[in-house]
Automatic annotation (TrEMBL):
GO terms for molecular function: DNA-binding transcription factor activity; transcription cis-regulatory region binding. This is LacI family transcriptional regulator. Residues 10-64 form the HTH lacI-type domain. PROSITE patterns: HTH_LACI_1 (PS00356), HTH_LACI_2 (PS50932). It comes from Nonomuraea polychroma. Residues 338-350 have a biased composition (Low complexity).
Amino acid sequence: MDGAGRGRRVTIADVASRAQVSTTAVSKVLRNAYGVSAAMRERVRAAIDELGYRPRNAARAMRGRTFTIGVLLPHINNPFFAEILDGLMAQLGGTDYQAILVQGGRDPQGESRAIDALVDRQVDGILMVAPLSSKSGLEEVATGTPTVVLGPHERSAVYDCVNNDDEAGAELAVEHLIALGHRRIAHIAQKDRNQGRPATLLHTIREQTYRRVMAEHGLAGEISVATTSYTEAGGYTGARELLARVPRPTAIFAGADLAAFGALAAIHEAGLAVPADISLAGYDNTRAAGLAHISLTSVDQDGAIMGRTAGRLLLERIEGRTTAVQFCVTPALVPRRSTARAAGTRGRGSQVSPTQGE
């Protein structure tokens, strides 16, 4: 972010003062306008670099709206993000707004560069999906650009929040597996990469809820967690780790469908069957989870509604609303054939009829 470590944002006047030129001259350099000498351009560029100035609100005020919405995604591999985008685009349909997508990556530095790229392009608002930045960093951006944050469970006076009741959703998944007679229920969690706010993050809430529900049912001694990532590779690695433990779990709750897909591959690679040997549940209820050959039990948090709501709130922010809003989706469990009653004394090779899965 610009002006890091400063008490206020660097202005065009600060750049003009450092370069010892007029603000008009700085504006001309920023716009690459005619009539600026090479020496003056060099002085202004040097001042911009020294001060860390980024042309944000001033440029927007001069040009007016750009009718663009910036969308920050951690990556584009998660199919649940596509459902969020579907909802957002449905909300923007019929308006003059277009979405610009950027990928923040898996580290705060890459995300910061992506956010700066959106702000530099003078988008009218930003939707941040599962951002890594600290709350203070998000608020710095939101102070200058209308912002909606999707995922984290936190409140802010300067940006809106859209999330799902992750505690209720994780409880549905674990209770479902316990009701099927499973005791050795394992969990694939995600490692924290965010800056100083783990308690508000969805993957932290899902893991904590798993631990709580297990303990409430007298299964604290059966708690088994593999901490990897909400990716196919992470789910694959996590499942391999869990399958190697003794005793082996009879059920796995993956914190995201994408991780569950990786776990499914690891289970099959180990010569085991789902759900005959191991029941498997995910979270997100992505379209792929409902495919007949996958049939994954999953927690539905309605990504399309989340995306549509985020779009509506963002447009309201752009139109001048300043009161902060928090919107939370109530999840629902969608049982499918990947979960069934605990195998008990059945042998490894036995199969469960699809009607036994829920």
